[in-house]
Amino acid sequence: MPKKVESALIPFVIKKKLKSDVLHLDDPDANAWIEKVDKNWSGAIPATVIYNANTRIFYERSFTYAELENELLKIINK
Amino acid sequence: MRTFKISALLVLITVVSAFTTLNSDSGYQIGDVAADFNLKNVNNKKVSLSDYKDAKGFIVIFTCNHCPYAKAYEDRIIALDKQYKNLGYPVIAINPNNPAVQPDDSFDLMQERAKEKGFTFPYLFDEGQKIYPKFGATKTPHVYVLEKTKAGNVVKYIGAIDDNYSDETAVKTKYVENAVNALLKNEEVPVKTTKAIGCSIKA
């Protein structure tokens, strides 16, 4: 949420020591972009897209670390 | 042989996409009749749609305590109820979340939040998480506008409240208001479905 970048997003990135790029989608008209992410996305978060040059898989669900790693490995080893 | 392979592939694609469509479109669609429910309100009394003898329809909103998107819309949900209750379209809010998964959405905390914010509408607890799957709600907030007809409460709009969750003053299109205004004038709802952003329902 745009209003929570300073109070929540940045402190979270620092606390979790995130090394990867973190992009903030600052467009509150969600209906305009939900289907552009994936046509099967209902709009519920958390939502995840894992993709490389050959594969793109969308998930509308929560993951444990192991589940997420497993999905990632499936795509890497494809 | 080659033709056979291609058609086999096509069948596979059709089956996969049919399955996906079924999955994401489960629950009520526009034009479906929504079944009534009987859920506990924050005042401990049970509420059903059939209790509202004079209503012309309902603004059913799946919402909750904990979700930042739901919080961002709280004042707008109160405003919708104040504006449309007297015109025959009261807000009925339902918390679909399981407090065992999301403790902030317990019945006690619902009562507390309703009091704090001065909710003017029923805030119902979907005990056992049985009602939200019938609607096909996937997130909070998630709105279903129903029109009362002889056949039952017909789903007329599904989706977001408006086009700006973050800043009420920057809203350009008020989807729910436009839908209810059209129904009050016996007109076609201009935008029948939108995709709302929100927190996944914690069942």
Could you walk me through the main structural features you see in this protein, from its secondary elements to its overall organization?
The complex is a heterodimer of chains A (78) and B (203). Chain A has helices at 5-15, 30-37, 65-76, and strands at residues 44-45, 48-51, 56-59. Chain A has 78 residues and is of the alpha+beta class. Chain A has a domain at 25-78. Chain A has a two-stranded antiparallel ribbon. Chain A is globular. Chain B is of the alpha+beta class and 203 residues long. Chain B has a single domain, classed as Glutaredoxin. Helix content of chain B is 32%, strand content 21%. In chain B, strands 1-9-8-4-5-6-2-3 form an eight-stranded mixed sheet. Chain B has a two-stranded antiparallel sheet with strand order 7-10. Chain B is globular, with a radius of gyration of 19 Å. Chain B starts with a helix and ends with a strand. Residues 6-24 of chain B have low confidence and may be disordered. The chains are: A alpha+beta (78), B alpha+beta (203). The interface between A and B is medium-sized, with 21 and 25 residues. Strand 1 (44-45) of chain A pairs parallel with strand 10 of chain B, so a sheet runs across the interface.
